[in-house]
From TrEMBL:
Residues 15-107 form the Rhodanese domain. Transmembrane segments: none annotated. It comes from Anaerobutyricum soehngenii. It holds the Pfam family Rhodanese. This is Rhodanese-like domain-containing protein.
Amino acid sequence: MFDLISISEAIKQSYASKGLLVDVRSEEAFKKGHLPMAVNIPFTDIMKEKFDIEADFNVEKEQPVFVYCDTGSTSILAARKLDSMGIHAYNVVGGIMFYKGYLEKEKNDLWTMVRTS
């Protein structure tokens, strides 16, 4: 069974290189803002029958994977699927909505946000 983890603990574990932080939102949502150090693996990709996180993302079965979405509901399903594949998955409780820190963004989006004219 997958485990639950707070967003602050998931980030802390990722910074310590103790796991992979995965944003399961769409590529468009990811580009608009995601947690530092996160990789984007959309939920639709994870749910595909031939999805292989070990081969595609160099994840070992012992390596924890911390999955998040906007609110934590979609990531529950992703964590359940990863768990069924033998991956030690954690669902980030509350998703990115519980995060109040810095979000990484695509440079073009960031420039558009700060441009004054």
